[in-house]
Amino acid sequence: LGILSAAGELYEGFDEEYDCPILDEDRVVDELEDRMSQGGVIVDYHGCDFFPERWFHIVFVLRTENSCLYDRLESRGYTGKKLQDNIQCEIFQTLYEEAMLSYKKEIVHQLPSNTPEDLERNLDQIMQWIEQWMKDNN
Fold this sequence. Notes:
By secondary structure, this protein is of the alpha+beta class. It has two domains: 1-41, no CATH class; 46-137, P-loop containing nucleotide triphosphate hydrolases (Rossmann fold), CATH 3.40.50. The chain is 54% helix and 14% strand. It has helices spanning 2-8, 25-38, 66-75, 80-91, 94-102, 116-137; strands at residues 11-15, 20-23, 59-63, 108-112. A hairpin with a 4-residue loop joins strand 1 and strand 2 (20-23). The chain starts with a helix and ends with a helix. GO terms for molecular function: AMP kinase activity; ATP binding; ATP hydrolysis activity. It catalyses: AMP + ATP = 2 ADP. Its main location: nucleus. It is found in: Nucleus.
């Protein structure tokens, strides 16, 4: 979604406190509507409450232990409030709760994302789901 946003200039400003652009959620939805209606699209983003429920057949929420997450974010240059807020978001399961409130509970799945082995398992699980979806929908 970041590439699409940058290419389409789908921002409505810049957040100095978090040192990042502010996404124009309405423009993103408008930009994606045609692509999503065709199906077979994967959306990767750190939030979901503004995406229409009809777009998704399954939602995966990646979860990370705080010590791993802290190191990852710090290595990306996150500091101060941005670092703390991201850690708190994981502690309070904010994104998982958002997904559970935004979509049918049976399509929302948590995947651990702490180790390279977790990454391999997650990729395998997602690929299996995609293969099954393609069989069911083609």
